[in-house]
Amino acid sequence: xxxxxxxxxxxxxxxxxxxxxxxxxxxxxxxxxxxxxxxxxxxxxxxxxxxxxxxxxxxxxxxxxxxxxxxxxxxxxxxxxxxxxxxxxxxxxxxxxxxxxxxxxxxxxxxxxxxxxxxxxxxxxxxxxxxxxxxxxxxxxxxxxxxxxxxxxxxxxxxxxxxxxxxxxxxxxxxxxxxx
Length: 180
Fold this sequence. Notes:
- The protein has 180 residues and is an alpha/beta fold.
- 37% of the residues lie in helices and 18% in strands.
- It is built from five helices and seven strands; from the N terminus they run βαβαββαβαβαβ.
- It has a seven-stranded parallel β-sheet with strand order 4-3-2-1-5-6-7, sandwiched between helices.
- The termini are close together.
């Protein structure tokens, strides 16, 4: 069991094609609030980002948003946040989120979510941090991602111990097995 007081959640700024993505994102927000884990996220109010942040707030949780100035209008900054940081670059955004978080949770998302996941995974492999990384595999969304990682192992571009650097969970309730 690990003690987590804050968690960065990486996910899509759109809803995706599956209603269960949104439903699970709301469950994540409720879970974080109920477990007194501060949400660190991208600051937007759209898609899964909005679902997680609003559910966290609606259940009395603590939320920190980090958004770049150029995305304030595009991702519709969440006006209900008391703790919002507007930064200049995506690198600043990612670094601030990384530094504020004790752990990371990956929900369905697109290229940005993949980039954020691979960055923190590669940093963990390089021993730049020891923070936990969880992948919430809603309706098998991330199955192909795990196949890509398996391929890098099979082709000798990564060692099999890379799989020790993240945990696949199938529901937010599975997270209870690892924290607090």
